[in-house]
Specification:
The protein is α/β, with parallel strands linked by helices. The chain has six helices and eleven strands.
Amino acid sequence: MVPSAIRNGGALEDPWEALFEPIRSGTVDELIVIGQFGQSLDGRVATESGHSHYINGVDGLAHLHRLRAVADAVVVGIGTALADNPQLTVRRVAGPNPARVVIDPHGRLPATARLLAADGARRLVVTAEGARPAFPAEIECLTLPARDGAIAPAAILARLAACGFRRILIEGGANTVSRFLVAGCLDRLHVVVAPMILGTGKASFTLPPIDRVDRALRPPMRTHILGDEVLFDCDLSAQRVPVGRAKKST
């Protein structure tokens, strides 16, 4: 019900109205960009060994799949693609599969990656100029300039907009979501906190250091209960940089 209502402009019933209405449309340009990750109470997205399946429980994972279902495209970095080999499909709720995008500056993604499986969804790989990935012809390769081995988030969003994508989910990993946050390229950030303490492991945010607490980022925020987990819905639209317009289909 939620995916079709969001896509078709229909009314949403509680509790979906409060949760999904903010991602119905963007306020800066025609795009709406949502970052998402799940973490423990102590801000970890994985153990020291990299194990992360599953920090979030049934309700948190269902929320992630709802986000996928309402997105036009879901984006992950090459680190997540190699470590987790995700499918990036919608399985825990009813709804369509989004286009799948991996940011792979150096062309490291194997052609056997599950997110490249032919299932009717568009599959795109964002590479740096000079990379020579070898993929089947139906895989769309988007080549962009890179600086110090990284491609600017704003350039990625502009290119995805030119491909016709308007609602874009930046799913992971945490470093990729953090890069889009630092670059001012997120409208909203969904952080689902699970009731567990890992103690050590991979941190959720990777941001430039600050020297005073009063300089911390304090976006408007709402909380939602997802079973025994808590979703923090952060409004980052005030700092989002304009990117461009999504190409209209004819």
